[in-house]
Every structure is written in C-alpha cells, then in structure tokens.
Amino acid sequence: MCTSTRLMFLEFLGTWLYLTIGGLGTLNHPYLPALTWGAALTVGTLLGGQSSHLNPAVTLGMSASGQSSLSSLPGRFIGQFSGALVAGITLVGIAPATTVQGMVADVNITNIEWAEPWFTVPAYGSTMYSDILTFTIAAVMFQLVFCASSGSALYHGISLATIITVFGPSIGAGLNPAREVMGRLVVSFYHWNWDVFMFYDVWAWIPLAWSFSGCLTGALIYWLLIEVPKHLETKKKQKNTKSRNKDEIPYTIDHDDQEVENLTVILDEKPMTEKPPAPPAMPNFDRSPPQQLKTYLDDKETSPSAIKKFCKKNQISTPELEHYLARYRAVPVDRMDLGNGVTVTVTDVAQTEEEKHR
Fold first, then answer.
1. CA dihedral of residues 100, 24, 54, 155 (deg, nearest 10)
2. CA 37, CA 172: separation in Å to the nearest integer?
3. For residue 109, is it left (φ>0), alpha (ψ between -120 and 50) or beta?
C-alpha cells in the first residue's frame, strides 16, 4: 500500500512538471517542439524518479511486459491523470493573458491556434488512416526505447525529441493520453460544452486509442524478442554453473607478500580417488602348519639388543614377548619374524629354557 501511494505521488509530480514545462514551451517564439518536449520529459522523469512513467500508455506497456507490477497500475494512472489535470489548470493561471482569453472566447472551436499548450491538434491535410498509422508506429518506437532505457531520464527525453523531429509535434506531444484527455477537460470547463472532444470528426480518439495500442504492441515485441531469449539464456547459464560447481575444487595460494589468491580448478572429469594398497594378509599361526611357517619366517640373525629395541619401539612388554615365544615353542622352526626386520631364534630360546630346568 505504501509503495503504491508513493508511486502515485511520484507520477503526479513528474507528470505535472513535464506537461507544465512542455505547455509553456509551446508559447515561446521560436517554438522548438523537439527540444521543448524532450527537455520537459527529462526534467519530469528526474523528479518522478527512474521508476516513473509519466504516461498512461507507457505504464500499460510496461505492465504488460512484466517490467512494472500490475498492482501499481491503478495508482500510476491516478497520479498521471491527476498531474495532467493540475498541469492544465496551472497553464491557465500562468499562460499569457492573450492565449487564455483566446481559449475562453473560442467556444465554437473556430480558431485553435491557442490549443497547443493543453492538447494536440491534427496536422493540416492529414487523414484518419495516416494519423492512425503514424501514431501507432511512433508509440511502438517510443515504448521499445522506454523498455530498453532502464529508467534513464536522459534517454527518455532524447527518444521523445527524436520522435517529434521525425514525425512532427502533433505526433510526439500527442503520445500522452493523460494530456489529451485532461487538457481537453480543462478547456471544456471554460467552454461549458464538449465540442473540444468532438471537433474534426472526433479526432481525439486517435491519439488516445492508438497511443495505448502502439505502446502495448511495442512492449509485447520487446518482451518476445528481448526478454524471453534473455530469460532462456539466463536459465542455461545457471544450469551450466550448477553442473560446473559439482566438479570445482577451490584452493588458496599464499604469496610471499601475504596476499591470498583464491582460485578454482574446474575438472572436466570427476577426480579419481586411489585407494591405498591393502596390507598383506597376516598368516594365522594357530592354524598354519609347520611347513608353511618355515616358508614364511625369515632366516635373519638378530641380537637380544635388537629384540629389546623392537619391543620398546612397538611398546611390547617382556611378558608379551614371552607369551609370543611360548606359543611357538612346539613349532619346529628355526626363527620367527616379529616384523620390521627383527627375527627371534625360537629354537635357541626353547633349548636354553630346557637346560635351565635340568
């Protein structure tokens, strides 16, 4: 609710400033339509902010293309039409007296030279079909540039000035339906009739209807040709990024100058993890026959000091060593390998114990 209200006031202020400056510029001599309306739109957009449109037809197109929320559409319309109404009243108050008196006195719409500050009049010699085609093409171009400019006030002003230069002031300035409706409404209040809407075979419906249709068409063209491919490309990049993240190995390089550089290695193939070789199976001395023990045990001679060193290194106590030796007293082999190059002469120790008992 707060966002919609804020946007409504921004549209109101921006539209009011845009149409007031543009209307006053039409009274200057020489009248430079492109410079006047282009600069007025730029200043109005600066006041309204990058999110402002200052034009109901543009707002409809932006909402249709998804660049503006539909929930903000009513508030923007209210702000734009209200700003155009206040701009028309402001022009009545600050315009030269001769212009205002000519507007009030021309009740029958016989001389519309005074009309330019409030609304657009058809060009001399124009036809309905040519005006419809021209308004539609100009609105399509303006909407395309508006969608691509990302809210830039300067680009908005340049695009409107270019359209006015190419198509004429009756087309460029008439692309704003808020100006065409509310300006005529202010004039009809002073005339006490609706002739200002009906003159020239109800020509007023052309800038109203075809500005909306042209901007809506331009927005749909931009959406189909620009936004949809961009969206598909973004989804494809995200998919590729997700697949790459699975095969990425981040690592850090520490330089001598204490700068840390974070790098990422992308592997085309999944890293192979080599399993450590399995240790050789230990023989089961309880079940191995004597002939297998003879084949397994080493014939290396060893000294008592080497046996003590081996036991100390592997934390084998003397009772444990005696227990190992006692297990193999009945085994008819010469030596037993305790590992790490240490071999115990089993037969000699057994014979020594027998001699002690004797």
1. 160
2. 8
3. left
